[in-house]
Amino acid sequence: MSGFLHDDQIAVLRKQGFVVARQFADASQVAALRALAERHLQEHVAPIEYEADLRYPGAPESRTAQGGLTVRRLLNAYARDPLFAQWATDPRIGQWLARYFGEPAVLSTVHHNCVMTKHPAYGSLTGWHQDIRYWSFSDTDLVSCWLALVPESPDNGGLSFIPGSHTAAYAPEQFDDKKFFRDDAPQNADWIARAVSPRLEAGDVVFFHCRTLHAAPGNRSDRVKLSLVHTYHPASCHPIAGTRSASQPGVPLAGV
Protein backbone atom coordinates (compact mmCIF):
# COMPACT_ATOMS: atom_id res chain seq x y z
CA MET A 1 0.00 0.00 0.00
CA SER A 2 1.22 3.45 -0.79
CA GLY A 3 1.81 6.21 1.70
CA PHE A 4 -1.08 8.12 0.16
CA LEU A 5 -3.45 5.28 0.95
CA HIS A 6 -2.06 5.16 4.49
CA ASP A 7 -2.77 8.87 4.84
CA ASP A 8 -6.35 8.44 3.61
CA GLN A 9 -6.93 5.66 6.12
CA ILE A 10 -5.33 7.66 8.91
CA ALA A 11 -7.62 10.60 8.16
CA VAL A 12 -10.61 8.28 8.56
CA LEU A 13 -9.24 6.91 11.85
CA ARG A 14 -8.79 10.43 13.20
CA LYS A 15 -12.32 11.43 12.18
CA GLN A 16 -14.41 8.39 13.13
CA GLY A 17 -12.16 6.51 15.57
CA PHE A 18 -11.71 3.40 13.44
CA VAL A 19 -10.83 2.42 9.90
CA VAL A 20 -10.85 -0.84 7.95
CA ALA A 21 -7.72 -1.64 5.93
CA ARG A 22 -8.82 -4.27 3.43
CA GLN A 23 -6.55 -7.26 2.79
CA PHE A 24 -3.78 -5.80 4.94
CA ALA A 25 -2.41 -9.31 5.52
CA ASP A 26 -1.92 -11.70 2.60
CA ALA A 27 -3.70 -15.03 2.34
CA SER A 28 -0.70 -17.23 3.14
CA GLN A 29 0.12 -15.24 6.28
CA VAL A 30 -3.50 -15.39 7.45
CA ALA A 31 -3.68 -19.14 6.79
CA ALA A 32 -0.54 -19.79 8.84
CA LEU A 33 -1.75 -17.61 11.73
CA ARG A 34 -5.19 -19.20 11.68
CA ALA A 35 -3.77 -22.74 11.70
CA LEU A 36 -1.53 -21.87 14.64
CA ALA A 37 -4.40 -20.27 16.55
CA GLU A 38 -6.66 -23.26 15.89
CA ARG A 39 -3.98 -25.66 17.17
CA HIS A 40 -3.41 -23.65 20.36
CA LEU A 41 -7.17 -23.47 20.85
CA GLN A 42 -7.69 -27.20 20.35
CA GLU A 43 -4.81 -28.05 22.70
CA HIS A 44 -5.75 -25.37 25.28
CA VAL A 45 -2.22 -23.98 25.24
CA ALA A 46 -1.82 -21.69 28.27
CA PRO A 47 -2.19 -18.88 29.17
CA ILE A 48 -5.91 -18.84 28.48
CA GLU A 49 -8.86 -16.72 29.57
CA TYR A 50 -12.12 -18.66 29.65
CA GLU A 51 -15.58 -17.20 29.12
CA ALA A 52 -16.47 -18.34 32.63
CA ASP A 53 -13.70 -16.15 34.05
CA LEU A 54 -15.44 -12.93 32.95
CA ARG A 55 -19.05 -14.15 33.06
CA TYR A 56 -20.31 -11.68 30.51
CA PRO A 57 -23.91 -12.25 29.32
CA GLY A 58 -24.17 -15.70 27.74
CA ALA A 59 -21.10 -17.15 29.45
CA PRO A 60 -21.10 -20.26 31.65
CA GLU A 61 -21.43 -19.71 35.39
CA SER A 62 -18.09 -21.35 36.16
CA ARG A 63 -15.35 -23.46 34.62
CA THR A 64 -17.03 -26.57 36.04
CA ALA A 65 -20.43 -25.73 34.54
CA GLN A 66 -21.58 -26.96 31.13
CA GLY A 67 -19.42 -25.18 28.55
CA GLY A 68 -17.16 -23.93 31.34
CA LEU A 69 -13.98 -24.52 29.35
CA THR A 70 -15.09 -22.38 26.42
CA VAL A 71 -12.07 -20.24 25.57
CA ARG A 72 -12.47 -16.48 25.27
CA ARG A 73 -8.87 -15.44 24.63
CA LEU A 74 -5.53 -17.10 24.01
CA LEU A 75 -3.41 -14.67 26.03
CA ASN A 76 0.11 -13.31 25.52
CA ALA A 77 0.17 -13.89 21.78
CA TYR A 78 3.52 -12.14 21.30
CA ALA A 79 5.33 -14.70 23.49
CA ARG A 80 3.29 -17.71 22.33
CA ASP A 81 5.04 -18.36 19.06
CA PRO A 82 7.46 -16.54 16.74
CA LEU A 83 4.74 -16.44 14.08
CA PHE A 84 2.48 -14.40 16.35
CA ALA A 85 5.40 -12.17 17.34
CA GLN A 86 6.24 -11.62 13.68
CA TRP A 87 2.71 -10.37 12.99
CA ALA A 88 2.59 -8.14 16.07
CA THR A 89 5.79 -6.37 14.94
CA ASP A 90 5.15 -6.53 11.19
CA PRO A 91 6.90 -3.61 9.45
CA ARG A 92 3.66 -2.71 7.66
CA ILE A 93 1.96 -2.17 11.01
CA GLY A 94 4.98 -0.20 12.24
CA GLN A 95 4.96 2.02 9.16
CA TRP A 96 1.21 2.62 9.34
CA LEU A 97 1.29 3.55 13.01
CA ALA A 98 4.40 5.69 12.66
CA ARG A 99 2.51 7.79 10.13
CA TYR A 100 -0.42 8.03 12.52
CA PHE A 101 1.59 8.81 15.67
CA GLY A 102 4.24 10.89 13.90
CA GLU A 103 6.87 8.83 15.72
CA PRO A 104 7.74 5.14 16.20
CA ALA A 105 5.13 2.87 17.76
CA VAL A 106 5.52 0.51 20.72
CA LEU A 107 3.62 -2.75 21.16
CA SER A 108 1.98 -3.18 24.55
CA THR A 109 2.47 -6.75 25.75
CA VAL A 110 -0.02 -6.17 28.60
CA HIS A 111 -3.22 -5.05 26.84
CA HIS A 112 -4.95 -7.14 24.19
CA ASN A 113 -1.94 -9.06 22.80
CA CYS A 114 -4.15 -12.07 22.25
CA VAL A 115 -6.07 -14.33 19.93
CA MET A 116 -9.70 -13.33 20.49
CA THR A 117 -12.20 -16.14 19.98
CA LYS A 118 -15.98 -16.19 19.78
CA HIS A 119 -17.63 -19.60 20.06
CA PRO A 120 -21.12 -20.43 18.76
CA ALA A 121 -22.09 -21.86 22.16
CA TYR A 122 -21.20 -20.01 25.35
CA GLY A 123 -19.41 -17.23 23.49
CA SER A 124 -20.57 -14.19 25.43
CA LEU A 125 -21.64 -10.80 24.15
CA THR A 126 -19.56 -7.74 25.01
CA GLY A 127 -21.31 -4.48 25.85
CA TRP A 128 -20.37 -1.00 24.70
CA HIS A 129 -17.05 0.10 26.18
CA GLN A 130 -13.84 2.04 25.65
CA ASP A 131 -10.65 0.02 25.95
CA ILE A 132 -8.86 2.82 27.78
CA ARG A 133 -11.14 2.29 30.80
CA TYR A 134 -8.67 0.02 32.59
CA TRP A 135 -5.43 1.22 31.04
CA SER A 136 -2.93 3.65 32.62
CA PHE A 137 -0.68 5.63 30.28
CA SER A 138 0.78 9.12 30.16
CA ASP A 139 -1.41 9.82 27.12
CA THR A 140 -4.65 8.36 25.77
CA ASP A 141 -3.73 8.21 22.09
CA LEU A 142 -3.40 4.44 21.73
CA VAL A 143 -4.47 2.39 18.73
CA SER A 144 -5.37 -1.29 18.44
CA CYS A 145 -4.89 -3.46 15.37
CA TRP A 146 -7.53 -6.16 14.90
CA LEU A 147 -6.78 -8.81 12.25
CA ALA A 148 -9.67 -10.99 11.07
CA LEU A 149 -8.50 -14.59 10.64
CA VAL A 150 -11.94 -15.62 9.35
CA PRO A 151 -14.82 -13.56 7.94
CA GLU A 152 -16.54 -11.41 10.58
CA SER A 153 -20.06 -10.01 10.67
CA PRO A 154 -22.80 -9.39 13.24
CA ASP A 155 -23.91 -13.00 12.65
CA ASN A 156 -20.75 -14.47 14.18
CA GLY A 157 -20.00 -11.82 16.81
CA GLY A 158 -18.20 -9.22 14.71
CA LEU A 159 -17.35 -5.83 16.18
CA SER A 160 -19.57 -2.76 16.03
CA PHE A 161 -18.21 0.77 16.47
CA ILE A 162 -19.73 4.16 17.23
CA PRO A 163 -18.17 6.72 14.86
CA GLY A 164 -16.81 9.84 16.53
CA SER A 165 -17.19 8.47 20.04
CA HIS A 166 -13.42 8.69 20.64
CA THR A 167 -13.47 12.49 20.80
CA ALA A 168 -16.55 12.97 22.99
CA ALA A 169 -16.67 13.82 26.67
CA TYR A 170 -19.03 11.68 28.74
CA ALA A 171 -20.56 12.02 32.19
CA PRO A 172 -19.83 9.28 34.75
CA GLU A 173 -23.50 8.30 34.90
CA GLN A 174 -23.39 7.27 31.23
CA PHE A 175 -21.38 4.22 32.33
CA ASP A 176 -22.23 1.44 34.77
CA ASP A 177 -20.07 0.33 37.69
CA LYS A 178 -17.99 -1.86 35.37
CA LYS A 179 -17.43 1.08 33.01
CA PHE A 180 -19.67 -0.23 30.26
CA PHE A 181 -21.57 2.43 28.29
CA ARG A 182 -25.15 2.00 29.47
CA ASP A 183 -27.62 0.98 26.77
CA ASP A 184 -30.49 1.84 29.14
CA ALA A 185 -29.46 5.48 29.61
CA PRO A 186 -31.56 7.90 27.52
CA GLN A 187 -28.57 10.19 26.90
CA ASN A 188 -26.74 7.27 25.27
CA ALA A 189 -29.47 6.35 22.78
CA ASP A 190 -28.41 8.78 20.05
CA TRP A 191 -24.82 7.55 20.28
CA ILE A 192 -25.76 3.87 20.07
CA ALA A 193 -28.08 4.56 17.12
CA ARG A 194 -25.03 5.66 15.12
CA ALA A 195 -23.28 2.29 15.46
CA VAL A 196 -21.90 0.56 12.39
CA SER A 197 -20.85 -3.06 12.00
CA PRO A 198 -18.21 -3.45 9.28
CA ARG A 199 -18.10 -6.84 7.60
CA LEU A 200 -14.57 -8.18 7.45
CA GLU A 201 -12.93 -10.79 5.28
CA ALA A 202 -9.96 -12.83 6.45
CA GLY A 203 -6.90 -10.60 6.10
CA ASP A 204 -8.76 -7.35 6.76
CA VAL A 205 -7.50 -5.20 9.63
CA VAL A 206 -9.37 -2.69 11.76
CA PHE A 207 -7.30 0.06 13.36
CA PHE A 208 -9.33 1.62 16.19
CA HIS A 209 -8.69 4.22 18.86
CA CYS A 210 -8.67 3.20 22.51
CA ARG A 211 -11.48 5.68 23.28
CA THR A 212 -13.78 4.47 20.49
CA LEU A 213 -16.92 2.85 21.87
CA HIS A 214 -17.32 -0.66 20.51
CA ALA A 215 -19.27 -3.83 21.27
CA ALA A 216 -19.77 -7.35 19.97
CA PRO A 217 -22.80 -9.68 20.02
CA GLY A 218 -22.77 -13.44 20.48
CA ASN A 219 -21.86 -15.84 17.69
CA ARG A 220 -24.97 -17.18 15.94
CA SER A 221 -23.01 -19.13 13.33
CA ASP A 222 -21.77 -22.72 13.60
CA ARG A 223 -18.04 -21.89 13.51
CA VAL A 224 -15.60 -20.35 15.94
CA LYS A 225 -14.54 -16.80 15.05
CA LEU A 226 -10.81 -16.04 15.45
CA SER A 227 -9.07 -12.65 15.46
CA LEU A 228 -5.64 -11.36 16.47
CA VAL A 229 -5.58 -8.07 18.36
CA HIS A 230 -2.69 -5.95 19.60
CA THR A 231 -2.43 -2.45 21.07
CA TYR A 232 0.22 0.18 20.36
CA HIS A 233 1.25 3.53 21.76
CA PRO A 234 3.69 6.20 20.54
CA ALA A 235 7.25 5.97 21.85
CA SER A 236 6.81 9.23 23.78
CA CYS A 237 3.85 7.74 25.69
CA HIS A 238 4.66 5.60 28.70
CA PRO A 239 2.72 3.28 31.00
CA ILE A 240 2.34 4.75 34.46
CA ALA A 241 4.69 3.14 36.97
CA GLY A 242 3.07 0.83 39.47
CA THR A 243 0.03 0.06 37.29
CA ARG A 244 -0.85 -3.09 35.39
CA SER A 245 -0.04 -1.26 32.16
CA ALA A 246 3.61 -1.13 33.29
CA SER A 247 3.78 -4.76 34.43
CA GLN A 248 5.53 -5.98 31.28
CA PRO A 249 7.90 -4.18 28.91
CA GLY A 250 6.69 -2.97 25.52
CA VAL A 251 8.29 -3.85 22.19
CA PRO A 252 9.43 -0.96 19.96
CA LEU A 253 8.48 -1.28 16.29
CA ALA A 254 10.45 -0.23 13.28
CA GLY A 255 8.65 1.70 10.61
CA VAL A 256 9.60 5.38 10.42
3D architecture notes:
Its cofactor is Fe(2+). Pfam families: PhyH (PF05721). It comes from Achromobacter piechaudii. The structure is a single chain. The chain has 256 residues and is α+β, with helices and mostly antiparallel strands. It is 24% helix and 20% strand. The protein contains seven helices and twelve strands. The protein has helices at 3-16, 27-42, 51-54, 77-80, 82-88, 91-101, 189-193, and strands spanning 18-21, 48-50, 71-74, 105-108, 114-118, 126-129, 143-148, 160-161, 205-209, 214-216, 225-234, 251-252. The strands form two sheets. Strands 1, 2, 3, 4, 5, 7, 9, 11 and 12 form a nine-stranded antiparallel β-sheet that branches. Strands 6-10-8 form a three-stranded antiparallel β-sheet, with no helix packed on it. The chain is globular and about 50 Å long. The mean pLDDT is 94.
Which key terms come to mind for this protein?
single chain, 256 residues, alpha+beta, 9-stranded antiparallel beta sheet, 3-stranded antiparallel beta sheet, 24% helix, 20% strand
Summarize the topology.
Elements: H1 3-16, E1 18-21, H2 27-42, E2 48-50, H3 51-54, E3 71-74, H4 77-80, H5 82-88, H6 91-101, E4 105-108, E5 114-118, E6 126-129, E7 143-148, E8 160-161, H7 189-193, E9 205-209, E10 214-216, E11 225-234, E12 251-252
Antiparallel strand pairs: 1-9, 2-3, 3-5, 4-11, 4-12, 5-11, 6-10, 7-9, 7-11, 8-10
Short description:
This protein has helices at 3-16, 27-42, 51-54, 77-80, 82-88, 91-101, 189-193; strands at residues 18-21, 48-50, 71-74, 105-108, 114-118, 126-129, 143-148, 160-161, 205-209, 214-216, 225-234, 251-252. It has 256 residues and is an alpha+beta fold.
